Amino acid sequence: MSHYLIINTGGTIGMADTPSGLSPQAGLMKSRLDGDSRLTNWKEHRLSWHEWQPLIDSSNIRPGHWYHLRDQIAAADCDGVLIIHGTDTLAYTAAALSFLLCGTGKTVVITGAMRPLTHPDSDGYGNLALSLEILRKRQPEVCVAFNGRSLPASRVSKVDTEADSAFMTPNWSDSLWAQPPGKVKSDLSRSWRPCALGVQTLFPGMPMDGLMSMVERNYRALVLNTYGSGNVMTDDALQRILEKASLQSIPVFVRSQCLFGDVHLGQYAASSLLSEVGAVACGSMPLEAVLTKLQILCAQFNQSKDVINGFNEPWAREWQSL
Ligand code: ASP
Known about the structure:
The protein has 322 residues and is α/β, with parallel strands linked by helices. It has nine helices and 14 strands.
């Protein structure tokens, strides 16, 4: 018999219909795990419960919640932790916890469902059974259990609003599990403090004033969703903005709008401006991992050089490539 802590934050899996739409129901998860014949394997174990009050739709998750979960999991004396979570922001919480708990050796599984357990055809039963299978393996890291697969927490994105296969891990192959998750060098012990991160998706005809105002307001870091392998338009205003950012030591992180493949600054002349201002490539990390890692780094460090160094460290499989 193992001892697991179950933290229920909310989400569709434990929701029921109400006049205003699906809404989380207190006690529903526990009563299903205690009494439903489809979940009998869970009965072989000692379960400790922590149910959030109130339970939330995961649209309401904030970075402070990630830190609260980190502290609770770090302090938990058990064989593993299951987090029940809504699917909308599950990828953010998963990535954040993979970073905040890296190096702690904790076994954490995050799951949810596309249809509530109260639905006759809920995918939640399969996801809960799979979660237990993954917990039993005692892998010392954070994984997402969904639709028959164990997924690395720093590599998932929600890509479907309806299908059971709602999560995808582009640029990931299961053969990468054989590699160690990463090496932690940065100290991540600080508590959460808010920081302004700017994200801009480039598109033809894009006005530049949004990006300029982020620099004028001294945002802590900018993330650019660029074309292809890291290309940007040739534009005087964009050049001025990026040079100003560089003068103000605001680091610029470069992603691709493509789902698959890496960023390669310098491959095309159209990325030379980014190389000249010292922009940092994000490899093939999903946006969720980039944003959570940067929020955690900006909360930890005041200096941009520490944020960049920490970003480039491999912590939780986010830099592993095919
Ligand atoms: N809106 C829900 C949530 O993220 C969706 C879900 O759980 O699937 O909480």
